[in-house]
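Late entry, written up from scratch paper. The run itself happened at the end of the previous shift, but nothing got recorded in the book at the time, so transcribing now.
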Amino acid sequence: MRSRSVLALVLTAALVGGCGAADDWSRPHEAPTAVGALGAGFVDPDAPPAPEATITPRPGSWSAVHPSPGYRVVLLTTGEDAPTRTLEAAVTRWAADEDVSLKTVTASEPSDYIASTVRAMRLAPDLIVVAGNGLVDPLALVSANHLDQQFLVLGAEVAEPTFNVTAANWTGAAFRGEGLAMRDAYDPASFTPRRAGEALRAGVAAVLHGITGIVVRLA
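Output as recorded:
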């Protein structure tokens, strides 16, 4: 009798946790929603940002926003440099804290950037978080042809994003692609765990509220 009870609990847990860490993404799931509202100062509700605009939300105005259970995210990443590793760690911590179902696609070299982006899209996630400056130019090429897929570029930005590409960055982290000047000097030391985590949460909060195709630039 005890063994049957234990088995029943295991089966129940598997069903309940199907959209969490045990989610194998083999079945469709409900569209994600925002749990919690944006605070005052994130955007002006009477004057929403135009496409490709840059907003500087009030610090912490995104803190109450969380993804709904079962949020599926792919981390698309490249590079062994310290800034990229910091971004990767921020995504991993956030996913664990929010019970997000996370998969990672790593592009090992430039010749694999576009193919890796395509692999990430084929997983059909709710959001692809992009980390690594090398992926910015390939993303600009691919994303415009796949408007049904949402992207969040972390610690960089696409120069002319379509409405499905949002960026979250800060002073010292605004790479815009090869051959384009940055809005400020690139500073690897600015990629701290705290800064990366705040940018990620602010960017995700924007995406969950449909405020996309812009740059969320932390003050």
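The helical segments are 2-16, 82-98, 113-122, 136-143, 193-208.
(Scratch paper discarded after transcription.)
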